[in-house]
Amino acid sequence: MCYIIKTFINHLLILTALPLSCSPLALLWLCLSQLPMSYMSCIFQLSPRRTDVLTVTPWLAPVVWEGTFDPMLIDAIYKPMNLTVAATVFAVGKYIMFLQGFLESAERHFLVGFRVHYHIFTDEPEKVPPLTLAAGRQIIVHKVHKLNRWQDISASRMQLIQKVIEDRVHREAIYMFCLDVDAKFYSRWGAEALELLVAQMHSWFYREQRHGFTYERNPASKAYIPNGEGDFYYAGALFGGSVGEVYKLAKMCHSHLEIDRANGIEALWQEESHLNWYLLHNKPSKVLSPEYMWDNKKGQPGEIKVIRFSQVPKNYKEVRENA
Ligand SMILES: CC(=O)N[C@H]1[C@@H](OP(=O)(O)OP(=O)(O)OC[C@H]2O[C@@H](n3ccc(=O)[nH]c3=O)[C@H](O)[C@@H]2O)O[C@H](CO)[C@H](O)[C@@H]1O
Ligand SMILES: [Mn+2]
Fold it and tell me: Which ranges in 232-269 belong to alpha helices (H)?
């Protein structure tokens, strides 16, 4: 505290020592640009700015909402680490139409200033748009077979995520995120999302009570969550964390999907149901607010100060295989 007061006094002294001919804007800029990190964090962080939403879980994981973090401070901490973050994106069948909008908007808002490896899984590699990416960022294309049912395409992601981590991501990246392709970025989606195991409150369920969540309710399924249990309803469209944690998650969800399949069971929301089971038993160390994967169909209620990433409206019958 002493240090901060001393720094503040120093800044006042700098100000008074400047020639009066300096414009007030230039003075303000000079003053702000001199502020050390500790002083900035004192200004921006030490009073609760969100009291309208849950900002910490009962297991003490932060819930990231606009206003709960200082983006400059976050970047100042993470950028010097020179991290590589992998992102898996599936664009199979007609979903290839979403890829360009996804990638172009990601280049504007997704972990800007970080090294990002986009792992694109598609049955038509020649249709991946030839984009020029920012320095340190690259696209890696993986050819996959198109499965017949959209449910299988969506669920097959767990197995392919597991495999790509084994093949290369474990030595190429520190963190990774697994993202739906039918969405666009609109605003900063940054390093504040990095943690060991990261999940997102589903935009349709963050105000619901537990009994309203669409968990799998069949006790014979490996995704079964009994009534009265559960924390949040997490989105299948976005999860991530350290490469090691995502590997454990994908491997277990894949194995549970296989066990269910062998027993002739398909959970209500396929891999999303298994993801919710996994996250109930392995609590995420950071929870992202619905800002991080919104659905514009819901408008913009007061607590959503920023829409960072949001689903593109689509006609399911047109884009999904065998819908
Ligand atoms: C916001 C959210 O939580 N979305 C989930 C939800 O609806 P969604 O409507 O978001 O599912 P979806 O149709 O977008 O499918 C999920 C993702 O699978 C990929 N894909 C799917 C079909 C296809 O023909 N080609 C293709 O590439 C693509 O990356 C897509 O973004 O339910 C799905 C159940 O299966 C998944 O759990 C989604 O993550
Ligand atoms: Mn989607």
Answer: 243-262
